[in-house]
């Protein structure tokens, strides 16, 4: 009987996975603007299945050996104290948390918000670029800083095709902050050229989108040359593969690594 239950459970999971894949594929077909990304995903999940994790063990060992806390990173890089962020924006963060709980679909939760916010404060940011939005937690942290200087956040985020969740992207961002925000709903390879036509240089870059090795390296190269001197570069989940470590080594960049909720974030000042 136990074997039968396990077998039925496996069949159920397989059916759910197949249903999700089919739903996503159909959603792609309905959006010609996303055809280039569909082609890339087919290649990534067939010919290049192993490349997204290239160098993962090496980078996790390296990151663990040098990682510091978010608080220490902000103090070291920006000479700022993170203690005031949560108290200053307590009401806004509480409302955002309630919005996330009521959202009918599941997306990525909040990351190192203080690191992102104080990067914008340190640079007195006017133009910020992020890849990956989800609920909009990182967007919220950026916009809370940009509103002080009437700046602009440019965000790249793929539609949530499998969940039919387009309407919930950026869900936790208050309406009054959206006037400082331009959201581009394509894959990075389509969004970034459109964004670069709007702004030629940036004060802060936050990467949290395509987790593959080649996807990261492509975006890192594109963004690095568009960061002004003194700008801040932040990349989430650098332990997924060695792209960030390899990029920093190639450019001879001295980076700080932040350990946050069991994952690693890379950050440096150009």
UniProtKB/TrEMBL annotation:
UniProt keyword terms in alphabetical order: Methyltransferase, Transferase
InterPro entries linked to this entry: SAM-dependent_MTases_sf
Single GO molecular function: methyltransferase activity
Keyword Ribonucleoprotein assigned: no
GO biological process: methylation
Name of this protein: Methyltransferase family protein
Phylogenetic classification of the source organism: Bacteria, Pseudomonadati, Bacteroidota, Flavobacteriia, Flavobacteriales
